[in-house]
Records
---
Amino acid sequence: MVPIRILSDNDVKNILDIKNTVACVEKAYALKANNQVRLFPMVSEVIFEGRAEMDIKSGMLNEEDVFGLKLVSWFGDNKNQGLPAITGLTMLFDLKNGFPKAMINASYLTGMRTGAAGSIGVKHLSKQDSKTLMIVGTGVQAIFQIAATLSQVQTINKVYIYDPVKYENASKFQYSIKTELDKIINDINDTYNKSWKQRIESVQFVAVETPVKALEETDAVITITPSRKPLIFKEWIKPGIHFSCVGADMTGKQEIDEKIFEVASVYVDDITQASTVGETQSAIRAGILGKNNLTEIGQFILGNAKGRTSDEEITIFDSTGIALQDLAVSKYIVSKAEEMNVGTIVQI
Amino acid sequence: MVPIRILSDNDVKNILDIKNTVACVEKAYALKANNQVRLFPMVSEVIFEGRAEMDIKSGMLNEEDVFGLKLVSWFGDNKNQGLPAITGLTMLFDLKNGFPKAMINASYLTGMRTGAAGSIGVKHLSKQDSKTLMIVGTGVQAIFQIAATLSQVQTINKVYIYDPVKYENASKFQYSIKTELDKIINDINDTYNKSWKQRIESVQFVAVETPVKALEETDAVITITPSRKPLIFKEWIKPGIHFSCVGADMTGKQEIDEKIFEVASVYVDDITQASTVGETQSAIRAGILGKNNLTEIGQFILGNAKGRTSDEEITIFDSTGIALQDLAVSKYIVSKAEEMNVGTIVQI
């Protein structure tokens, strides 16, 4: 019998802030580039065609002395019963003896680490004075992308919201956005989150029916949809734009025109995953680029890759979501939970 | 927040008996042969070369309305600190909505379902009047193989114990065997387990230094070691013998001479796993047989395969261990736990 710490979604919400999540995800990318981590093969399965999917991402973080996995599922029909479509669990094990350490509800955790990923692309690869962000998609993950990007990129003062399914989703989302952003803690040390409230108030949020006109003044786009066809076309974009493509995580998914890859510098979280299940897969399949045209973002964070070199360069960050993000954030959550005495300890 | 039932190893010990475990495993094999289940790709990783391994097995059982996974690790150095080398967890999720249902300590569960698998091979494929069993290997899993086989094959009255590393392991094991068998519940309905005690007393246990002479009167062999080279050679065996090969579950593992496959009928739990990570891999690699020479044991259970046809036939059952065994047994454990009000419910 060993003790295992169980952390609910509420526990995670009480522990996790944007700044620490971003720090963990950047660290995971850097450790990966330094080969101090291992990513195990992903299990990605359709459970019921068009209605339910599941994936298991696993790996190990040597420096943090943990290995583990995250199982996340999507059950589309849940919405009809008012239940969340996406649920999941993270399991953390001790790299010294294999014993289980913690089980963590992965819902909020996934939103936060995915938001961190999208924002890291914008922070490191968009133009230095980027002012306008466009978010494509208004599902549960969208708010985390906006929150993390506003936290990390202080120059942004306008956010266009585009929903490819219907405009009403975008306009509805627009009116709830400040309240929702306020629920996500930016910085755990900013006790009353005062500067975060000011930051939110400093931004204009604008729902748009079509992206074409808004793209003329957009500096960075984050795509976060389950799309299987391009939503943004090469003819619509101007030089200097950045894309963080976050939605594609399975074979057949695609959010932007593969022709944009012809004129872009491409960064990814993991070359294998990006070229097989990420946004990059469609450009690879079309023969527009090969794996050797891809740079892992961890190489940039470590200073081994140069990143953007001019205000005209078009950049893409393809974030497929890797287990190391989950493990690094989970390890942080567990350390804080021990410190704060949060969660339920069960002997197993 | 959803409720999840946490079941410790002690909880599992209080719930699980041999007869129900065997029934669950046979049902899992049959459902697999009937395509009412899905096995997802296995993740099998060496963590530290020669010192630690980990695997994640996952799948879904449509009829039981569950999907899930088992993560099991082996950390060899744990023994030096008096800790168990093998630990693991099973996670069960609801196939209706993806919500987590239960987390179960997988130690005892794994022993029981692995013992059930080995015994199912002996029960269905050894000669009808099999009297003598040989167990090769005296690690933690050995007792479960013996227990399940004595439960399922009533004609066996002698068990040879052979340890390929050193004889002392076998002779030590021999003296603890009746006490250890007594700790494993055979039939939950046999309240005081009276007939089980009688059954154990009816058997002779004999440690042997080498297997050669004992094999002359052995009807069925179960191999349960981490070996990477053959331990039983073709020259040593007689017609009519059965092998349940249970130890091999990774690339490079092997317990019996691949030449035995030249003269044997071969049954497996899963053709893909058996031919890549099971005992069968070495015979496949040597060109002795192909995948089309393999029959899944579920086909026999369903009555679609004929099984043994004479007392001279040599049979092999290659059990690599599939997620469906774990899921079927886990589902049974959870149903019993609900009925008996066992375990800890945590809101996650």
Note: The mean pLDDT of chain A is 96.
---
Amino acid sequence: MNSFTFQNPTKIVFGSGTVSQLGKLTEAYGKSILLVYGSGSIKKTGLYDEVMAQLKSIDAKVVELSGIEPNPRLTSVNRGIELCRSEKVDLVLAVGGGSVLDAAKAIAAGALYDGDVWDFMMQKAVIRDALPIGTILTLSATGSEMNGNAVISNWETKQKRAFGSIHAYPRFSILDPTLTFSVPRDQTVNGVVDIMSHVFEQYFTLTPNAPLQERLCESILLTVIENAEIAMENPQNYEARANLMLCGTLALNGGLISVGTQNDWASHGIEHEISAIYDIPHGAGLSIVFPNWMKYVYQERIDRFTQYAERVWGIERGNKTDEELALAGIEATRAFFTRIGAPATLAYYNIGRDNLDTMAKEAVLFGPLGNFKKLNEADVRQILELSL
Amino acid sequence: MNSFTFQNPTKIVFGSGTVSQLGKLTEAYGKSILLVYGSGSIKKTGLYDEVMAQLKSIDAKVVELSGIEPNPRLTSVNRGIELCRSEKVDLVLAVGGGSVLDAAKAIAAGALYDGDVWDFMMQKAVIRDALPIGTILTLSATGSEMNGNAVISNWETKQKRAFGSIHAYPRFSILDPTLTFSVPRDQTVNGVVDIMSHVFEQYFTLTPNAPLQERLCESILLTVIENAEIAMENPQNYEARANLMLCGTLALNGGLISVGTQNDWASHGIEHEISAIYDIPHGAGLSIVFPNWMKYVYQERIDRFTQYAERVWGIERGNKTDEELALAGIEATRAFFTRIGAPATLAYYNIGRDNLDTMAKEAVLFGPLGNFKKLNEADVRQILELSL
């Protein structure tokens, strides 16, 4: 394994009813709070009222920013930054899924930056400080609740870009699995694919001698596969929802499960280009792209894929060649995604060849994508072709 | 799984040559440093000179406290506390194994406490603050480098007691696997047993529905078993030493691998009574006690032990009954400990029946031990009898 530095300061408060601790958790950071949320489903479920009651109990002054989009947009982030400045906000509180959390991080960092927040996404500036962030998670997927990453879409330029910073780790995150009981089936599915994809990006590495990290990755994959269909069939199964939530959090946890190894992230890069133009759900895009990425790259180091087939999918080697075993694991991935109802082709969203060139070009804007196999523009285009 | 709160703020800097980052890591905390270490082996290896050069590079004023014992003693802790006060220490820097780190934690907490530091160990007071702590680890074993726990021995009262506090987490820990190249074979063995025992304390639980946590535990056990003998046969094998070091750190990492489950810790409680009187190495004591604890309790929930046998030791069920399979796993544990040269009986240290009553009585001072099976004084005595 390689040398590494790891730190993850986020405090997580996990379990049913833990929103009741919000007031106490918030108090230390001041009274002026920017409450960031999405389309308003938190008003239907009663979570909004619960949050407001908690904030009232500590005499907080609450400013609201609602309507954060599923692929959160720069325009919303800029609205939040203005509110932070005009209302002298002490804490940015995100209530929602990964998109809301990501927007809150960009707002918190942008509020203390004397320039255009998009600079962080374009690698023109580094985050030096951010307002404190707290989160209440309502969807198991991105891991944003316990890392310093955010992905923001610039709708004007049709770009979707990410940043990561130690300053953007939430100070606290409330993880109550019961808040995911009402998540619709398709969003549960997208979350499952997203969690598994985060693990894939770390698991498929050329870095040798990282047996613990490999097993940590496999542990999450096995547990997600085991619990996904239980949660889909019975959305109120607490244990399945709790297992998925914990898996989501640990899958992208500042790199905990892959310390000292080189990650890939090509598939995420490709997916970002698709949803930057077509605004499709991130998890759905990953379901389309990832098995095709696997097929395109597995020969680079086939033993990673044979191990994946055996340990994650329980496929016995028998008389299979490495090639057959690796491909069986990739097919099992596609079959699982299909079984839970995740899409397999861009055609599912009526996406054709129109923008393949643009997407391939944008994907390699900062250089070749990925590390397991370095992908140039032509490689990306081929994977997109496979995904049609 | 149960509800839980988790936070682990320690920054770890892992890899060969990372001691070169000490100056930069230390600088933020002030110039007056208490350097805590053990018998002086760090002077032989050259580590002491390297540390002093780093501290000199930031113009630090260094006060030394050497001679920390393998089971660190309250008298040493009190000497350290006096130094912190008289020298207005800003940071306690521990260089050594778990004992040195534990002593540093007690010193850092005691320095800011207006009372007897032993109060923390006797549960008479709670730690409200501590001086910042930094560590450089030289032995893979206790996990003290990334948790808030410490175990201190009171030689006057023959008591060995633990505390845990969020304030006692190191601010940073430097983990350089090459620093463990010179660890003697018996200490490597004790470290291996200690790491595995930390996992056992968390893995053998009655808490249902924690499949991810179970797999995280199994991941560490498998990796330790795989790497222990490689490190023993070739002490300078970097990958084996690195894998053991990472396993040690994650095995007792503020409870990361067992969040939301009830831990046991009875075997540690029993071992502490043995080494409180006989001053034997902690890992050696655990090697003696743990398999006997397993045999004494496995029937409480036999499926935990059959899963252990199958997943960790790869024992096939075949025609075995649950009972046979569980016992095969326990026997495999004992056989592994014996194969790597860890002791199996108290007789190995010429310990007889003399103090069994005292040990059993002290072990339950604060109530029954453990959770997998609640052990009263008579139970502890029986496990000690089995260990003769």
Note: The two ends of chain B are 37 Å apart (CA to CA).
